[in-house]
Specification:
Layout lengths: L2 H24 L4 H28 L7 H12 L3 H34 L4 E6 L2 E6 L8 E4 L9 E3 L3 E5 L1 H4 L5 E4 L3 E2 L4 E2 L4 E5 L7 H14 L3 H11 L1 H16 L2 H10 L3 H20 L2 E3 L2 H8 L3 E4 L1 H5 L5 E7 L5 H12 L5 H12 L8 E6 L3 E6 L2 E6 L1 H5 L6 H9 L6 E7 L2 E9 L6 H10 L4 E5 L4 H11 L3 E3 L4 H12 L4 E5 L5 H6 L2 E5 L5 H6 L2 E3 L5 H36 L5 H19 L12
Parallel strand pairs: 11-18, 11-20, 18-19, 20-21, 21-22
Antiparallel strand pairs: 1-2, 1-3, 3-9, 4-7, 4-9, 5-6, 5-8, 10-22, 12-17, 13-14, 14-15, 15-16, 16-17
Helix pairs in contact: 1-2, 1-4, 2-3, 2-4, 3-4, 3-9, 4-6, 4-10, 4-23, 7-10, 8-9, 9-22, 9-23, 10-22, 10-23, 11-22, 13-14, 17-22, 22-23
Keywords: ATP-binding, Cell membrane, Membrane, Metal-binding, Nucleotide-binding, Translocase, Transmembrane, Transmembrane helix
Organism: Mesorhizobium opportunistum
EC number: 7.2.2.12
């Protein structure tokens, strides 16, 4: 019989004992028989609790459940078996309520582990075979049918796929992915069958990391919870002192018993763990993995936020920033022509151009007579028009810029961007500017962090000062540190940490030392940056910055609710102890009152599972 079943059985025995004893009293069997029944119903709870306390004591722990043991034992010795059985019901009921609360808080985390990928369909020249996910090797081509879980991380081979990523990233709507995009294990194929190439083993894939972190979240104790455990130990001698004084002053041992009954510190021993598990669970639903209550508590106290630039505040790569179209030209048509031509190129920009066109739902044409001028650009024909795309020298030769293009040239003169000139029929038709673009939610995220109590926001990057200052001006950051090596990043983080609790947010392997050095390391793990993810305390699974602000808000709300539950619960218990010492509360009434306090405290702690003021961007 496991502990949860035993607790429910003890609760049933105590409730039945109370009911049968009341029935015996009402049918005239007399108080002696009723007292015997209530005593018998209490003894199993007393015995189980005594064994539990001895077992904990043997391994070096001493729990405050001893107060419940003392109160039940004292009630039996003082000839108050009705009070004893009511306390037994309250204690056993509290443990069952704790099981329910923990189960409710852990349900979302357990749902993640229960749906781990089990099998994969490997394709080869011999056909398709179904294998265990543990047998997938890097480089294997896999078939993913409609409605199936992706077994491992990989690269999409087909032109497109629709994926339900809600279990991993928290995104409620299916996401469209294109050929070459990174796919994550544990997501669901929400469209037609597609092919992918495995890029990681099962145990190294996204979903396996989630499962490991879920296990850590369920077993780790935060410093806040450990502090609550230590503080709770002082309640036993304090309770015995108060009950002894009440007995001495009044001469009535029943008053001492009433004090013991209302003093069980369930608000302290239950509220904090339930609240923190709930907070970790709430974060997981939003695509944020926290490595236990320790990470959540530390995140709740940060005052300084440090961000890497490339791939964190910015998209990280050559993305389309702006299209300057000649008078009379349509920007979307120019993008359609350029993307059609770039389909024949292997240049690093080709994927960005094609992806931008598909993002605008543009239909691409097949290019003809394409010639590639290495390092300079492309020439070819699209829709029976001659197209040239590339450097200014390739497209314009020694011709001057037309007037409409001069303002853009001046605008980007000192910026680290790539300018692609596009001519149609020998005439300059447009200029495309590519660069490491700012994330669309970066400004909003910084603003929400400041509202959440972050006092200082810093950008720490290995990029040059010009690129860093451009991003800083857009975000109104407090400090910019550029041209930083990994060692200099660590030194900068440690210097800030010495002033205030500090959060470091990064995505690359080179950020891992700085993430580990910070009070809290937050990794942008959507692109599979396993080095930074292993070093981090918190991992954001979606490729957005907004969850960083969500994580801070969840953490602060969770810690606030835990504190509310503990302070309110102990205050109510303290008032009840005073009332009991003054003879205003009987032992039976005290047990009922204490159970009401416990229920209120646990229900309040379970609020961490909800959104509160959190809203998805």
């Amino acid at each position: 019989m496991n502990e949860s079943t035993l607790r429910r059985a003890l609760l049933v025995i105590a409730i039945l004992g109370l009911a049968i004893g009341i029935g015996a009293w009402r049918t005239g069997l007399g108080p002696l028989e009723a007292n015997t029944i209530w005593t018998v119903a209490t003894l199993p709870v007393v015995a189980a609790l005594a064994i539990s306390i001895l077992r904990d004591f043997w391994i070096g722990r001493f729990g405050v459940d001893a107060i419940a043991l003392v109160s039940m034992s004292a009630a039996l010795l003082l000839g108050q078996p009705l009070a004893a059985v009511v306390v037994a019901i309250m204690y056993a009921g509290g443990t069952v309520l704790e099981d329910f609360a923990r189960g409710r808080a852990e349900r979302n985390l357990k749902a993640l582990t229960d749906r781990s990928p089990r099998v994969a369909h490997r394709t080869s020249t011999r056909g398709t075979e179904t294998i265990s996910v543990e047998h997938v090797a890097v480089g294997d081509e896999l078939l993913v049918r409609a409605g199936e879980l992706l077994p491992v991380d990989g690269i999409l081979l087909d032109a497109s796929a629709s994926l339900d990523e809600s279990a991993v990233s928290g995104e409620p709507l299916p996401e469209r992915r294109s050929a070459g995009d990174m796919l994550h294990s544990g997501t669901v194929n929400a469209g037609e069958t597609f092919n992918m190439r495995a890029s990681a083993l099962a145990e190294q894939s996204t979903y396996a990391a989630i499962v490991r972190m879920v296990a850590a979240a369920q077993t780790a104790k935060s410093p806040f919870i450990r502090m609550a455990d230590r503080f709770a130990l002082f309640l036993l001698p304090f309770t015995l002192l108060v009950s002894g004084v009440a007995w001495y002053v009044s001469g009535d041992p029943i008053r001492a018993l009433a004090v013991l009954v209302v003093a069980t510190p369930c608000p302290l021993i239950l509220a904090a763990p339930v609240a923190f598990i709930g907070g970790v669970s709430r974060a997981a639903r939003a695509g944020i993995l926290m490595k236990g209550g320790t990470a959540l508590e530390a995140l709740a106290q940060v005052r300084t936020a440090i961000f890497d630039k490339t791939g964190t505040l910015t998209i990280g790569g050559a993305e389309l920033i702006e299209i300057e179209a000649a008078p009379g030209r349509d920007a979307n048509h120019l993008l359609q022509l350029l993307a059609s031509l770039e389909q024949a190129s292997h240049h690093v920009l080709a994927d960005s151009v094609v992806r931008a066109a598909r993002g605008r739902q543009l239909m691409l044409s097949h290019p003809h007579d394409v010639s590639e001028h290495r390092g300079a650009g492309l020439k070819g024909r699209v829709e029976n028009m001659s197209i040239a795309a590339g450097s200014r020298a390739l497209v314009l030769a020694d011709q001057p810029l037309p007037g409409w293009a001069k303002s853009g040239e001046e605008k980007y003169r000192d910026n680290p961007v790539l300018r692609v000139f596009v001519a149609v029929g020998g005439e300059l038709a447009g200029i495309f500017t590519f660069g490491d673009a700012l994330r669309v939610d970066a400004r909003d995220t910084i603003g929400k962090l400041r509202k959440a109590g972050i006092k200082r926001v810093i950008m720490l990057t290995g990029d040059d000062g010009v690129a860093a200052e451009r991003i800083s001006r857009l975000l109104a950051l407090d400090v910019v540190v550029a041209d930083a090596t990994p060692a200099e990043k660590v030194a900068a983080v440690e210097a800030e940490k010495a002033q205030a609790p500090t959060m470091m947010v990064g995505d690359g392997i080179n950020d891992a030392p700085a993430l580990a050095a910070a009070t809290v390391g937050v990794a942008m793990g959507a692109r599979g940056a396993t080095g930074s993810s292993e070093a981090a305390d918190v991992i954001v699974l979606t490729d957005r910055l907004q969850p960083v602000a969500d994580a801070v808000r969840i953490a602060r709300r969770t810690r606030s609710i835990a504190l509310q539950s503990i302070i309110a619960g102990l205050a109510l218990s303290g008032l009840a102890m005073i009332a009991a010492a003054m003879g205003q509360i009987t032992p039976v009434a005290g047990a009922l009152l204490q159970e009401g306090i416990d229920v209120a405290v646990i229900l309040n702690a379970l609020r961490t599972l909800g959104d509160g003021h959190l809203r998805r961007a």
